[in-house]
Amino acid sequence: MIKITIVSTKGGVGKTTLTANLGGILADSGFRVLLIDADPQPTLSSYYPLVHRADHGLMEFLVNSSVDQAVSQTTIENLDIVLSNDPDGKLRDWIRDAPDGRVRLKYILSLLEERYDFVLIDTQGAVGPLQDAAVAAADFMLSPIPPEILSAREFVRGTVSMIQRLEPMARLGAPIGPLRGVIYRQDRTVDAKMIADELRRASFTPSKGAITILDTVIPNAVVYREAATQKVPVHRLERSRKGPSLSARDTMTTLAKELIPNLPDLE
Ligand SMILES: Nc1ncnc2c1ncn2[C@@H]1O[C@H](COP(=O)(O)OP(=O)(O)OP(=O)(O)O)[C@@H](O)[C@H]1O
Ligand SMILES: [Mg+2]
Fold first, then answer.
1. Who surrounds ion ligand 2 at CB < 5 A?
2. Pocket flag, ligand 1, residue 20 (CB < 6 Å)
């Protein structure tokens, strides 16, 4: 079971869209995928329709280890979700006060080892105990980065300081995994390769190699918004096409393959 936490120190960069679509292509390829909505603003929770709505959500999943009663099923086969049910942000205080708060999610996911191939955790675009718990639970992190040099520099600063702050988690048996940055919402006017190279230079040494930047770039395209409106994974809307830009299906496939080495063929 591979656990990936989608993080950014900034809001509105594309975390939820990326989580939903990566989960969608992995599930459509036959992998068993669990999404976890760890954002008090439950955007991922309403991204896909449900065929089964569990009585419980993330609150009980964490606090009572209520695993079975907290997993809902989406209309996409093989794609389950733990819904966010903490609109007032009480979990933040609970995690801060519980002796094992920041490692509880990691422990609970270990109970699901046989049931899923992938767990994707969507987070809030802000630092806090819930984000810490989600980062500590992951094998590695994935961050969408806006393709502008100022945002890119902010990404490096914010991410390096997050990783440094969480380094002591290793002493609690929860070493912080590496982070993969992906240039996100690129349009034709920006040179993604130049920004990627600058990011690689600026982040590799200060993060001691923990931050790497993917070659895959996700374009800014209306199909991502259309897919969200229609509540389907983006690859189902756009099949492979010839030409200079990749289709959404090719983009998501390339991303999954770069992210997860030895991934068997996607559908
Ligand atoms: N590749 C894309 N091309 C165009 N628009 C996109 C793309 N990805 C996401 N969007 C749009 O950008 C907006 C923000 O995306 P999203 O909600 O995924 O960001 P977020 O990081 O989860 O935000 P928050 O921090 O508020 O949780 C949404 O309106 C979404 O439809
Ligand atoms: Mg979001």
1. 15-16, 43
2. no
Q: What burial class does residue 256 get, using C-beta atoms within 10 Å of its C-beta: 0-12 exposed, 13-18 middle, 19+ buried?
A: buried
Give the distance (Å) from ligand 2 centre to CA of residue 9.
12
Q: Give me the torsion for CA of 221, 226, 229, 233, rounded to 10°.
A: -90
Name the residue with tokens 């992938």: 118
Would you tell me the crossing angle of helices 149-166 and 192-204 to the nearest 10 degrees?
30
Among left, alpha and beta (phi > 0; psi -120 to 50; other), residue 222 is alpha
Complete domains list, the chain, with CATH: 2-251 (3.40.50.300)
Could you tell me the distance, in angstroms and rounded to a whole number, from the CA of residue 146 to the centre of ligand 2? 15
- Per residue in 28-54, pLDDT (tens digit) is 999 999 999 999 999 999 999 999 999
Q: Which atom of ligand 1 is nearest to 125's Cα?
A: 25
Q: How far apart are CA 97 and CA 108, in angstroms?
A: 18
Instruction: Give per-residue pLDDT as tens, 190-229.
Output: 788 888 899 999 898 989 999 999 999 999 999 999 999 9
Q: What is the pLDDT of residue 244?
A: 66
Q: Can you tell me which atom of ligand 1 is nearest the CA of 221?
A: 3
Q: Which one-letter amino acid corresponds to residue 85?
A: N
Residue 220 Cβ inside 6 Å of ligand 1? The answer reads yes
For the chain (length 267 residues), average pLDDT per consecutive 10?
95 96 97 97 97 97 94 98 95 96 97 97 94 97 92 90 93 94 88 88 90 94 96 90 79 96 78
List Cβ neighbours of 182 (8 Å cut-off, separation of 6 or more): 18, 142, 143, 144, 145, 213, 214, 216, 217, 218, 255
